[in-house]
Amino acid sequence: MEIDNKDEKIIEILKEDSREPIREIAKKTKIRPSTVHQRIRKLIEDKVIEKFTIKLDNKAVGENFIVFMLVKGGTTEYIDNKILQNKHVKEVFGVTGEYDMLIKLKFENVDEFHEFVLNFRKDKKEIQSTLTMVVTANLKEEI
Predict the structure, then answer these.
(1) CB contact at 8 A, 89 and 103
(2) Total structural domains in the chain?
(3) Which residues does 38 contact at the CB level (< 8 Å), separation at least 6?
């Protein structure tokens, strides 16, 4: 699906507030409400929009200790559903270079993180090494 200028305007508004009423989107974009509705349905149908969600305040929900972990493994697959469904694991990317994977993690504090790392390394013998980077300032974070 090709995204045109009108779709881009609608998407930008939805990124700011996915609960924005169609009538408000129509006013802001100067597109008829019925057309906005049809375009949003089409964006969902074509999987341009995967889901509507919320952005939480990290501190308010006890996830203000953010860590990025680079992971190097052996030749077997070492990331399973247990890891992917762990409440601390927020994003996982396959990457190129010295490491195979980049994992974004969120914790309440350093103790919670420490426990996670110990269990992660203990449960996954295929992991050769990890490199962790603790976030000291959250300058921009999108969902």
Answers:
(1) yes
(2) 2
(3) none
Which has the closest alpha carbon to 7: 45, 48, 55, 47?
48
3-state secondary structure 63-113: CCEEEEEEEEECCCCCCCHHHHCCCCEEEEEECCCCCCEEEEEEECCHHHH
Top pLDDT among 22 and 82 is at 22
Q: What token pair was written down for 89? A: 């694991």
Residue 19 is which amino acid? Answer: R
Q: Are residues 81 and 28 in the same domain?
A: no
pTM, entire model: 0.82
User: In this prediction, what percent of the chain has a pLDDT beyond 90?
Assistant: 76
Domain that holds residue 109: 65-134
Q: Strands of 127-134's sheet, edge to edge?
A: 89-94, 101-107, 65-73, 127-134
* Residue 89 sits in the same domain as residue 127: yes
Nearest 5°: phi and psi at 66?
-105, 135
pLDDT tens across 94-106, in order?
999 999 999 999 9
Rounded to whole angstroms, how far apart are CA atoms 52 and 120?
31
Identify any residues that bridge with 130 across adjacent strands, giving them in sequence order: 71
In the chain, the amino acid numbered 32 is R
The three-class DSSP label of residue 92 is strand
